[in-house]
Amino acid sequence: MRADVDLVVPVKALRRAKTRLVGVTDDRPALALAFALDTISAALPAVRSVLAITDDPFVAAELAALGVESTPGPEGLNEALHHGAALLRSRDPHSVIGALQADLPALRTTELEQALAAATDRAFCPDRQGTGTTLLLSTPGGDLMPRFGEGSAQAHARDAQTLIGPWPSLRNDVDTAEDLERAAELGLGPRTCAALTPVCN
Ligand SMILES: Nc1nc2c(ncn2[C@@H]2O[C@H](COP(=O)(O)OP(=O)(O)OP(=O)(O)O)[C@@H](O)[C@H]2O)c(=O)[nH]1
Ligand SMILES: C=C(OP(=O)(O)O)C(=O)O
To answer: Where do the annotations place phosphoenolpyruvate binding (predicted)?
Structure first.
């Protein structure tokens, strides 16, 4: 566990989430929620705190049941992350602030811990394809400076250490049906597995 790391996790309103998974399930909002809950449940033991940014009251209630704090934020991924990072920084001027994507349904706590342990500076973990970003960490006391979006791995690599190592579950964000197949090979979290029943079991 890294006691100096606080994570901000953006969670889009469920009715608008995971549009590239149309056809994979009859209930896309339920699958998006399951991704977020499995991701956050796996992340919780690895860090000091998790703050979710979501405008969705249903997501907020589900997170509260897990003991996870959430707050609404502005529209847009980087804007939401700026908002959450500012809140976390106001609470602790020295912490490492991390941004973790909420679509990592195979995430293993131990793999996140290994990646966090490998970070010695501002750092990011590229996604499986090497183009996107699944985790971004600030320097201690530093700004998060999120540059998520298309080509974010290249954008973050300009001034952040690249975290590559034995943590495939941290790299496997799920945007497409193929990503979901890869995540299933790694082992899906329990809520995602239940949301995909009977396919998963
Ligand atoms: N709070 C908040 N989170 C967002 C927003 N846009 C994206 N996210 C979150 O950012 C992460 C990465 O987003 P994407 O992989 O693009 O997910 P998505 O937008 O649901 O998927 P697509 O509809 O297929 O693009 C996920 O955790 C989303 O829930 C936003 O406007 N606000
Ligand atoms: C926004 C990003 O995620 P995705 O490509 O999964 O939409 C990103 O990787 O920067």
So the answer is: 133, 149, 152
Q: Please state, in angstroms and rounded to a whole number, the distance separating the CA atoms of residues 109 and 46.
A: 6
Residues of the chain under the 50 pLDDT cut: none
Choice from 145, 150, 162 to test ligand 2 binding pocket (greatest atom count within 8 A of CB): 150
| Residues flanking ligand 1, CB < 6 Å | 10-12, 17-20, 53-54, 73, 75-77, 80, 101-103, 175
Q: Mapping DSSP to helix (H, G, I), strand (E, B) and coil, where does residue 82 land?
A: helix
Classified by CATH at the fold level, domain 2-195 comes out as Spore Coat Polysaccharide Biosynthesis Protein SpsA; Chain A (3.90.550)
Domain ranges of the chain: 2-195
Output the CA 133–ligand 2 centroid distance in Å.
6
Contact 104, 169 (CB under 8 A): yes
- Among 27, 20, 32, 82, residue whose Cα is nearest residue 53: 82
d(CA 115, CA 6): 15
pLDDT value at position 184?
A: 95
pTM for the complete prediction?
A: 0.97
